[in-house]
Design brief:
single chain, 244 residues, alpha/beta, 2 domains, 5-stranded mixed β-sheet, 5 helices, 13 strands
Length: 244
């Protein structure tokens, strides 16, 4: 069983003035959680500076990736081969993970378009292209064992995530295991989105999520951002998908 971690560190801007010790915190997260692979999103930290923080515990290695991401793993980098996207996109990366005695899988990381500067339709179009690219690689490689993770800048119930015009990700494992959705003569395979399991009452009755905006509209969700229950190290709007 391979363990993954991901974190949007928001360090692409003003990296010289960032005093949050991201590299040290990332290393502590990886070691404490015994992560096999750690994906850092919006990470402007140079690879040598990042790896220098991993001076305690197991050895981690840098993995080839786009400029928006940094990826480290505690196995031979050759086991996580980066694939060339059919259409270049700096917000999306895909790797072929091949570990000894384990089934091969496709692993993808995504940084979705932000809501401030992009319409829901544009967010959905981007994620539709992500899903189509993954389907392309699945066809080329010959299996659909795919994991997608990252900061989608969207909630599980939004169209960009749950619709065929986006990721087509559903809350039900049984539905995701069923035949693909058929619309106008075209098949849309499902993704299973386990993040739905994290929506609900927190132990002390607080709102589920790391942060939320208490707005004044008649309809307020009070669940703008997601985190696993009891784990404050995972930050806003990061979702994880698995093809069943």
């Amino acid at each position: 069983m391979v363990s993954f971690g991901f974190w949007n560190v928001d360090s692409l801007r003003n990296t010289s003035k960032d005093e949050r010790e991201i590299a040290r915190l990332a290393a502590e997260l990886a070691v404490e959680r015994s992560l096999d692979i750690l994906f850092l999103i919006e990470c402007g930290i140079p690879v040598p500076a990042l790896l220098a923080a991993f001076d305690q515990g197991p050895e981690y290695h840098a993995i080839s990736c786009g400029n928006r991401f940094k990826v480290v793993a505690r196995f031979n980098p050759k086991c996580l081969a980066r694939l060339s996207l059919p259409v270049s996109n700096d917000r999306f990366d895909v790797w072929q993970l091949q570990l000894p005695l384990q089934q091969e899988i496709l692993v993808s990381v995504v940084h979705g378009l932000d809501k401030r500067n992009n319409s829901p339709e544009k967010q959905g179009l981007f994620l539709q292209q992500v899903a189509a690219t993954i389907a392309y690689f699945e066809t080329q490689i010959g299996h659909d064992r795919s994991i997608v993770l990252g900061d989608f800048n969207a909630n599980p119930f939004e169209s960009s995530v749950a619709s065929v015009l986006g990721m087509n990700a559903v809350a039900s494992r049984s539905i995701a295991s069923d035949e693909p959705r058929q619309m106008f003569g075209r098949s849309y395979p499902y993704f299973y989105n386990p993040m739905w399991n994290l929506f609900g009452d927190e132990p002390r009755g607080t709102s589920p999520g790391t942060y939320y905006y208490r707005g004044s509209n008649p309809h307020e969700l009070y669940m703008a951002y997601v985190r696993p229950s009891g784990d404050s190290s995972v930050f806003a709007q990061q979702l994880f998908f698995r093809r069943i």
